[in-house]
Amino acid sequence: MNEIREKILNELKEKVNEVKNIQEFQVLKSKFLGKKGEISNLMKQISKVEKEKRKEFGAFVNNIKKEAEELLNEAFENLKSKIKEEEEKKNWVDITLPGARRKIGYEHILKQTIREVYEIFSNIGYKIVEGPEIETTWHNFDALNTPEWHPARDMQDTFYIKDNIILRTHTSPVQVRTMLTHEPPLAIISPGRVYRKDEPDATHSPAFNQIEGLYIDKNVTVGHLKATLEKFLTMYFGGSRKVLLRPSYFPFVEPGYEVDVDCMFCGGKGCNVCKGTGWIEILGAGLVHPNVLKNVGYDPEIWQGFAFGTGVERIAMLKHGIADMREFYRNDMRFLGL
Ligand code: DAH
User: Fold this and answer.
1) Any idea which positions bind Mg(2+) (predicted)?
2) Which of 7, 64, 121, 148 is 20 to 30 A distant from 324 in Cα terms?
């Protein structure tokens, strides 16, 4: 009899160690304790045993059953804690690892450039003002001494919204708007987007940014203009910059100049960037034309002033060594992270 007991329980002990999951455990359990299981088969035999031995045999079978149940219960508890342990291992998180880094945004170079220019000019008393991008032809051209028949108007042909409403071609109309609403003296700079019918390439874009400057006071001369621009370009590009005024024509200034700065790449000796001249064209400027002053109701006998305009992309490209203007608008992360 003991052999039977040992055979059953040893087999159970062996199998119970091989069980890997709940399903396998259930199969094993029913193999031993199920209706058709080995122990049930023994139970069925109790009635067949002779009367005198039946009690003893019954007790024997019940003991086996009890032992098997205990073994299985213990195995089930072990299995549960093993599964739990594995689950925990799988979901383990190393809280000492550094977290995922978020990329921090940068101020766009164009905004940065406008801010730098504004910081330079605000230190010498200039105020920042803004004007609309949708502008009347009167503010954009006529008031700036550029009547309809004027050939200079063709050079800045633009996007017309209506006959006399356009996307501004330059920031110069902000001069007009400011003078119309403010009494002199005044000193302002005005950054913003401007629009021209240009094909995009490395140095052109149908929408780009300018910064306009305007200074109105009594007894203003070209000397004031030159000193102001020298100060601005020195502060912006660094070093000690020289400025060259080349006489040029803009309808709203007289005299008018194209302004060059000595090349910051070769120090004026001549290189690829300055095409061997030692100078880089950077601004348009001049003394505000008396007709412009009259158009806004200022008396040119009392008030004079100078004005200048520069391209934000242009000065940023020179300062940061950017070869293609289109980079500013592509939003390539590698460029923006400069
Ligand atoms: N508005 C001119 C342009 O877009 C630039 C300019 C030239 C502005 C001379 C000025 C100036 O204020 O005095 O090309």
Assistant:
1) 254
2) 121
